[in-house]
Structure formats: structure tokens, C-alpha cells
Design a protein that fits this description.
It is built from 9 helices and no strands. Helix 1 packs antiparallel against helix 2, helix 2 packs across helix 3 and helix 3 runs antiparallel to helix 9.
Length: 168
């Protein structure tokens, strides 16, 4: 296995269904051994931020609705399933599921991409409150917020799979 294929196998999925970010980071020479979460995150985020608005929107569109139809059908990525379960989104009451479904639809209609939030450390009430608040953001403000959340999710995923630099 080449260094590139090893890196892509390990880190290619931290930006949801967007392996091109890891490919570009590796091919640019921004990724080097030993792989450390902070350095890899910085390299991946630099590529994400340099991407066109359309490419970044495609990354947002690659994310599933929270507690949405993919979750119900069991079709989330392993990472998304674990993250949503950790926030209790797999154990919603019927009323909560109905509210998530309505908010997902309203949000998607307003912004054209799914509501994205790094759910680690949050509960369903925290997520619902963020949903209710952010739906009134401007399109530009919400695009920036969603992109920042995507970067945060990538950081959390990298921290789970790569060691961080140890102090000397």
C-alpha cells in the first residue's frame, strides 16, 4: 500500500463523502509523517477553504439530515451513525422526530443544504435549540456557520483516529 493510499484509507472520509479534500491535501505535499490530528486537520481545512463555493456546498450536501430519512433507513456512514447516537438522536420520541423532520425540511428549503452541527457533547435539546436559532440566520452567515461545523466534525473525527503531538 502506498503512503497516499494508506493516508486516504485512514483519513479520506473525515469530510463526509468528500475524499477529494484528502487527495488534494496529500498531493499538495501538505500531509507528512508522522500523521498528527492537528497538522492533518490544518492541511485538510486549508484545501476545504480554498475550494470553490460550489465544491464547499457539495461537501455540505454530502451530510445527512439529523435524525432524518437516512438514519431511519440505517444508511448513515459509520461515523455519522455513531455521532448521532451519541447525541441521543437515535432515541427520539415521535413528537421530537416530527419536529426534527419539520426543521430539516424548513432548513433545507431556506438554505439548500442540510443543517450541520458537530453533535459531540450535545444532547437533542441543545441541537434543537441551535436548529431553531440558526434557521433565522442570513444565507451567507449560515453557509459560513455550516462550513465551520464541517471543519469541527472533521477535527473530532481526526482526533479519534490519529494521535496528537506529544510534549517533549
Amino acid at each position: 500500500m502506498t503512503a497516499r493510499s494508506s493516508f486516504l484509507s485512514q483519513c479520506g472520509g473525515v469530510f463526509e463523502h468528500s475524499q477529494w479534500i484528502a487527495e488534494r491535501a496529500f498531493d499538495s505535499g501538505a500531509v507528512y509523517d508522522p500523521l498528527r490530528a492537528g497538522a492533518v486537520h490544518a492541511a485538510l481545512c486549508a484545501i476545504f477553504r480554498q475550494a470553490t463555493q460550489e465544491e464547499r456546498r457539495d461537501v455540505l450536501l454530502a451530510h445527512p439530515d439529523l435524525a432524518g430519512k437516512l438514519a431511519v433507513a440505517g444508511e448513515l456512514t459509520v461515523e455519522s451513525k455513531s455521532e448521532q447516537a451519541g447525541a441521543g438522536l437515535d432515541r427520539l420520541s415521535e413528537a421530537e422526530h416530527t419536529e426534527f423532520t419539520r426543521l430539516n425540511s424548513d432548513y433545507m428549503r431556506r438554505f439548500g443544504f442540510p443543517f450541520i452541527i458537530a453533535v459531540k457533547g450535545l444532547g437533542k435539546d441543545d441541537i434543537l435549540n441551535a436548529f431553531r436559532t440558526r434557521i433565522s440566520n442570513s444565507e451567507d452567515e449560515e453557509f459560513k456557520t455550516a462550513c465551520a461545523q464541517v471543519e469541527k466534525i472533521a477535527k473530532l473525527r481526526l482526533e479519534a483516529i490519529l494521535p496528537e503531538q506529544r510534549p517533549r
